[in-house]
Structures are given as C-alpha cells and as structure tokens.
Amino acid sequence: MNEKVSSATLDETPPTSQGGDTVAEEHWTWWNALPKLDFKPHKPNPNYQLIDPERLTDLFKANGIAPDSLEAMRIKADINFMNEELLRLYRERDHNAALQQNRYRLYQIGFTFLAMLAAVLGSLQSLALASYPRLMPFVALLETIVALGAVYLATISGREPPLPLWLRDRRRAEQMRREYFRYLLNLAPYEGLDVVKRQQTLSSRAADINRGDFPEEPGIW
Fold it and tell me: How many Cβ atoms are within 10 Å of 54's Cβ, its own excluded?
C-alpha cells in the first residue's frame, strides 16, 4: 500500500467481532459483555468485513486517491481476494469464539447464582431449625434442587468445556486478523513477491492458521 495511505490514521474504533448486538451509548458498554441466553447471530455473518467499505472510501478521499486509480483498484482487489481465502475462515473462527465466550460466561453466572442461592438456603435452614422446624423439609427440598442444578450445570459444562474452545478460536481469529492487514499493507512475508506468489503465500498461511498450525513470524527488520 502507498506510504501515505498506510500512515493515515483512522478513528479509534475498537476491533469488532460477531459477538452479537451492540449498544451505541458508551456508558452501556458493560451491558454488551453480559452473556445472552439467545446468542445472535446464530451463524457467521457472510457480509461481515474487517474494513468498512465506506471508511475505506473516506480514507481514499482523505489521501487524495481516486477510487478508480491503480492504487485503489489494487487495494480493492486484495480485499476481494482475502474475502475468499482468509475472511471466510476468519468469520467462522470469530463467530465460534464469541459463541464459546458467551457459553463460558453463562456457566460462570449460573454457578455464581447457585452458590449464592445455596448460601441463602443454608442460612434459612439454620434459622428454621431454631425457630420454625416445620419449614425444615421444605428448605431441605430447595437445597436438594439447587444441588441437582449444580450437578447438571457441571455435567454439561464439562462435556465440552467452553473456555479452551473460546481461547483456541479467538487466537486463530486474531492471528487471521493480523494476517489480513499484513497482506493489505504488503508487509513481510508478502513484501517483494509477485502477484501469484503473494496470493499463494496468503492462502497457505491462512489454511495453516485455521488448522492451528501457526506459521513462523516474519522478522520485523
């Protein structure tokens, strides 16, 4: 990419993911971190992009680059190529990472709620033993239900633990995100390669990352 384009500063928008609906107000950011019982989107968004086309057009205008210039066409061609070779893999990994993250947080909140409920019922049981003995069987029944709920939650969370799946797919997705911008900025290992070799290198590295076989990091200098 041209030097003046690569050095342009975009607005400080944090990296996005397919983690569900967002809330515009900044002071409601914490709300987005809460897990959702109905996680959306239910599958990867086929239209999700790492670079908003409108922002890219604004970037061209800010740097005095005509949308139909050779430089702009090359950048758009790179993005179109990566849509097929890298971005489709990124969407899958990014979506699955967000899904597993949501599952993990749901389980943790579930365990916390059950632990709190068990503590409250234990206190009530102590009070009932001293003051209301007739309530003991009812409180004991509730304690049993809470214990069964904890066992059930532990069973389903242990069958396919979400935390390692979340970390696995998030690492692969973020590695692909790095590769996306390396290719777009023509950094190592793509620098100095002809078009065919450059595309082959991206395809190979994207496939390796998707399998969890992370390629060697190119030298900075």
Answer: 8
